[in-house]
Amino acid sequence: MPDLIRLREFLPDGKCAALVTSEVSRRYLSGFPASAGAFVVTQSRFILAVDFRYYEAAQKAVQPPIEVVRCTRLIDDLNRIFLQENIESVYIEDESVTVAYCSELQTALIPQVLTEGLSAKLNEMRLIKSDEEVEKIITAQRITERAYTEVLNMLKPGVTERQIAVELEHLIKVYGGERVAFDLICITGENTSLPHGVPGDRVVKEGDFFTFDIGAVYDGYHSDMTRTVAVKSATDEMRMIYETVLQAHLKAARAITAGNTAAKVDIAARDHIDSCGYGAYFGHSTGHGVGLMIHEDPTVYRTNHTVLRDNMVITDEPGIYLPGRFGVRIEDMYLVKGEYAVDLAGIPKELTII
Ligand SMILES: [Mn+2]
Questions:
Q1: pLDDT, tens digit (0-9, with 9 covering 90-100), for 51-65
Q2: Is 77 within 8 Å of 50 (Cβ atoms)?
Q3: Which residues lie near ion ligand 1 (Cβ < 5 Å)?
Q4: Where in the chain are all domains bearing CATH 3.40.350.10?
Q5: How far is the CA of 75 from the centre of ligand 1 (A)?
Q6: How confident is the model at residue 151 (pLDDT cuts 50, 70, 90)?
Q7: d(CA 322, CA 313)
């Protein structure tokens, strides 16, 4: 369970509450997945409000100090709670509430609606993963690895990107993933120069690169991994680009230490690629946080000076993309632990020729 006390400390006084409505944050705070509802924090109570569809399951799943309240018309039920607790102002999630919902809340809620700070506080809490959260991320990664290892057997000249992507998605579910973490990127040949290319009818040919950017979701938590493999053979240039990206990845990985900044991780990878003359072909950030969302804080980019701390999980995914020709990206998740980051992947990073 997250440290709910830290969220309570965000409230300036007993007349102020936090109203959490986004699916991700409700799940994070309560541990209970539901497509609708609210999580309310006051100085004295933590309340999960869910409707009839979720009430029985939530009562079984949710532990004290969280109370489960059944709601019928959410806004009326929230007003009742706020009146009971003498709440005069309420923070809402400024980064996820739509303009329309915000205006509805401003009109219908009795307390004054405050629109600054709650999302930042929740994002900050989610930066540091509990050991339980880390275990779920690792499980999601192991599911992906099992599916990936199996699908490599069908990666042969003649197969299409789409066939590979469909099989991977199927296997991720077979091996226990609740779903894929994002639209899987399974691309080959010239398409590999597109960092977020979409799998289509392109046929795998001998001498092509094939890029997998894949992940699973396990109990709400995501995994993220990219491998670029060569089909049957690779030219010297392909090997050289691959080696450049691999060294950039490893340099960034060594920079992932508690106390270092996200910026320094990015710069470690970027400087290496720049020094090899390919800086213009690495146009995205080196990584991002992973957890209940596939992309979360911290962004691993040279402008982000967030200090890395133990139990953050971030990706390291430099790449080089030569337009119209080919691209290489190597991505893994790392758990920040003191002086050495823990590599959460169990698949070798060296160039694999299938
Ligand atoms: Mn990623």
A1: 999 999 999 999 999
A2: no
A3: 224, 315
A4: 4-126
A5: 37
A6: very high
A7: 29
